[in-house]
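Regression report. Comparing outputs from two consecutive submissions.

Submission 1:
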Amino acid sequence: MAIEEPAFKTIVKADNFEVRQYVPVLIAETVVEGDMDEASNKGFRKIADYIFGNNRAAQTGTSAKIAMTAPVTVEPQSEKIAMTAPLTVSASTSDLSNAKQWRVHFVMPAKYTLANIPQPNNPDVKLKEIPGKFFAVNNYTGFNTAAKVQNKTDELLAWLQLKSIKTLGSPQLSRYDPPWTLPMFRRNEIMIEIEAVQ
């Protein structure tokens, strides 16, 4: 069964690192507290509840199932979040081990817009349009411990510094596979928004 992923164009590829240009997307997101694992689980459950039917369609007022997409993304947050689109974070951190608040989001299937997507019943789940952006990415496999995620983040930041590419946001952890996937087949990415690169 194919799972839809957001569309992008690869601009640069070097070993495990990439620079990608993403198209605009619609996301469902929630902000949760806890360490990375705890927040990932809480956030996943809230958004999964929304896409599995805890919603109301604008046209009919009934609930609707929304197809699962990949990846599921978690990003550390500061205490202050501007409620605009695109989402603007007032402070960012590259030290994931100390983060206590996280934004968890799924990209919605491309067929939806804010006008036709079912609305969440849970006020903790928000829908947002995100414009096209550039991201630097570090690809890897295996389990995601806090130490491994921090190490992969540090690798990506060092690569960006070496290439003189300016970062614009907090690191994000994107996971593409269900929990029963064998570690060697798990696709993970650290993603950081960057300035436009041609």
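Submission 2:
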Amino acid sequence: MPDELIEIEEARRLVLERASPLAAEPVPLRDALGRVLAVEVGAADPVPGFDNSAMDGFAVRAADTASAPVTLQVVDESRAGRPAERAVRAGEAILISTGAMVPEGADSVVRVEDTSSRDGSVEVGVTVEPGGNVRRAGEDVRRGQSVIPPGTVLGAAELGVIASVGRGAAECTRRPRVYVLTTGDELHEPGEPLRPGGIRNSNAHSVPALVEASGAEVAEVETVADDPSATRSAIERALDADVVVICGGVSVGEHDHVRAALAELGVQEAFWGVALRPGKPTSFGVHDSGALMFGLPGNPVSAMVTFLLLARPAIDALLGAGTERRRATAMLDEEYAKKPGRAHAVRCRLELRDDGWHARTTGEQGSHVLTSMLGADALALIPTDSGTVPAGQRVEIELLA
């Protein structure tokens, strides 16, 4: 590894300055959950589009109720989707349902609970103010108003609002295609018998899952042996993806062939080696095709941590989503032993209290202890120059969800 390791925040900056939003595409609303909006959504018409009743009751002229109790003649009905056919005149009322259009001439609605009906008339027992129980046109959204900005991750509420302004589709950023390559002679798929020295290929399952959870598409998952030619060929096949994530083979051992293969294929290396534990042997570069190339460590925790801290922000940037929305702070509720020299990404469970997030480690933090990711809500980021962190100190965290 190089003598000068890059700081994780500098590595993140170099990644993000090379990641720009992809093109937009129309996505039907029923398929748009979790997608990232590429363009602003505005309202061509007001929402609601007409004055409507907030209650079941009677549409009246407020002035006619000034001397309540008063008896009014019921002359029509306004139902949801079926407005009344005539206006309200002095001394009249129109039966109205919640959400139904307030008829012309009426300026308020009296609740059905405040009335009693008999023989085509209604007795109103209370005085109502003009505008009472009426939802005005445009009260939710005004005509021409911007309702959702670009870069928003679309959830249930956003989809409902987009539908309410009459859009059947949303212009969303194209999802990045990510090629995942795992390397190593020792790797075996689950269910296969293990040869001596073999291990299960957990990265081929955890990393693609992180890709999908980040909002990208898995273009392919491939495993390649520790062979220079095979490694080069596999990486070359991946170059039509937007992002290539290579797990393993990025260090300085005799059988680590990834860095040489990337150089042979014309990848411009931005950095190699990060002052991070776990995740020191991490590299990043860009191919002439525009593909973002991440070389991640083969250790399963290191692969997940470096993906979350570097590749996931790149995917966010390609989607046009905010890259800092996952950052927060938390109070560390236990001492964390550390020596200066490298930043630490500590797997933590979070608890929300009155004074904010509180964090505790998930246990043993070795890069080979994949179970340390179980139940983890965040990575506590302990700076390079920091020593042991006492209990009660607030630290920066990267939220995992």
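Expected: both submissions complete independently.
Actual: both completed, but the second showed a warning that disappeared on reload.
Relevant detail on submission 2: The longest strand covers residues 343-353.
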